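Below is our example:

___
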Amino acid sequence: MSATPGRSRVLARGASWILAAAVAALVAATEGPRIVATLRPPPPESPDNALHDTNALQRAAALRDQAFAAVAVGQRAGVRQKLDEARALDPAGDSDPPVQEARRALDGPGAPRAQ
């Protein structure tokens, strides 16, 4: 007894759907998180993040002000550390002319030499 041609076609079509579903499940399991991350819009700016950024910028500005004041009176101890800490909090602010001037003053005449 052989299967009728109509029944073979139905079985083949059903097997095709099962195979397609298995491939879709495999792709979803392996690539799903990356696909979702690509399609998902970035999270909105939260007030907590904005507050943290503002606090970091304010802290960087305060550290730079302390460094400028120390350089103005000829003190060098701890100035580079303050400028480096400010740079870690606010990298863009490190390119400001007063910061670069303070860094040059640290490397200029009278600067402690590395032994």
Observations:
- The chain is about 70% helix and 0% strand.
- The mean pLDDT is 78.
